[in-house]
Amino acid sequence: MSGDMPARRRLLAVLVTVLVAAVAASVFFGVRAHELRSTPSAANAALADPEATEEVIERVSAGLKAVFSYDYTNLARTERAVGLALTGSAASEYRTEFEAAAKRAKREKLVRTSSVRSIGVRELSAERAELLVFLDQQTLRTKGAPASSTATLDVTAHRVDGTWRIAAITSL
User: Fold this and answer.
1) How buried is residue 129: exposed, middle or buried, by Cβ count under 10 Å (0-12/13-18/19+)?
2) What's 143's DSSP letter?
3) For residue 5, how far is the Cα from the chain centroid?
4) Same domain? 100 vs 138
5) Number of folded domains in the chain?
6) Which residue range forms the structural domain that includes residue 165?
7) What is residue 154's three-state secondary structure?
8) Rounded to an integer, what distance in angstroms lies between the CA atom of residue 85 and that of residue 73?
9) Per-residue pLDDT tens for 90-112?
């Protein structure tokens, strides 16, 4: 029986060591999980709310398509789209830029069609979204060959009266 005592002590020491290691790991991972949940990225609904993410993607995509597409015979349609899709500085900056584009469109009889090739939501909260957008554009002329172009945009959208509207557009 005296031979069993050192073996039991070793077994007890191993069990205590394993128990201490398990408790330490549990505490470490618990603290780490709390840190991750309390960081700003934890509030990023783009990671956790697919319905809200899809809503902002649909709304911003439709808005960009509408404001970056125009027809020289109906420029008023694009101007109306600006009123619905853009807000704040994005609306005023766009209107300034669109004046020159509208004059050129009338002069050269241009029709531009824009489509969102790809869009990703980087950050999303209840009232604000940051998106990265890849836009394709086709420009048709009554004289000359069609032209294609692409744009990469950094877009900020705000929820205004329950609807996502584009507040800032930065070309990258």
Assistant:
1) buried
2) S
3) 65
4) yes
5) 2
6) 44-171
7) strand
8) 21
9) 999 999 999 999 999 999 999 99
Q: Using N-to-C axis directions, what is the helix angle for 50-67 and 75-85, rounded to 10°?
A: 150
In terms of Cβ atoms closer than 10 Å to its own Cβ (0-12, 13-18, 19+), residue 46 is buried
Give the span between the Cα atoms of 122 and 124, in whole angstroms: 7
Pair 90, 167 in one domain: yes
Same domain, 8 and 50: no
What's the predicted TM-score (pTM) here?
Answer: 0.74
- Residues 17, 59: one domain? no
Cα 15 to its chain centre, rounded Å, is 50
Q: Which single residue is written with the structure tokens 């790809």?
A: 118
Please state, as a whole number, how many other Cβ atoms lie within 10 Å of the Cβ of residue 126. 10
- Whether 112 and 146 share a structural domain: yes
Residues 74 and 147 placed together within one structural domain of the fold: yes
